[in-house]
Amino acid sequence: MNDETISKFRKWKKELEVKKASEETYKSLSIEDKIKANKTYKKRIIKSYYDKYHKKLDKKVTEIIKKYNKYIIIDFHSYSDKMVEKLFNSKNNPDICIGVDSQYTDKELVNLTVCHFKKYGYSVEINKPYSGTIIPNKYLNKKEERLSSIMIEINKRIYLNNEEKIFKLKNCIEDYYNLLKLF
After folding, report:
1. HSE value, Cβ hemisphere, 13 Å, CA-based, for 117
2. Which of the residues 2, 7, 36, 125 has the least number of beta carbons within 10 Å of its own beta carbon?
3. What is the pTM of this model?
4. Which CATH number does the domain housing residue 117 bear?
């Protein structure tokens, strides 16, 4: 082989090694990192799920506000300490995170929610580690007194793998729901 062929071979070999390393790195990424890395996939997900969901949410909220003159969105989620530490480098996370938006979350609803979960012995933080709450797109940047939204993020450590803790949380949420009926 001549020097030019050897040089091309080394270049080709190096490109293959880089490609293989890139593929292995991609395979080792978490699903969250893969989503961040793939903007096309992200756009497709937004169009397929987010936009469709918000269109239905806009319609339903409008219908209920017209019928009952009030709508409260309780945006329930759960989270893990491990994921929050990875994403935000946040430790000592609360049992319950209450997400609020100053324009769309009624202060009395925040107080009721915080007091209720504390009554059950849970640690509670507002907008930590997550912040905000879901707002129907139709109502974004518009003041609508009849709409209130609050997010409740439940730390998985307070209910996973423990029947007694699950029962306690179930009772807490049922009691919260009953309180909301009076709100």
Report:
1. 22
2. 2
3. 0.75
4. 3.40.630.40
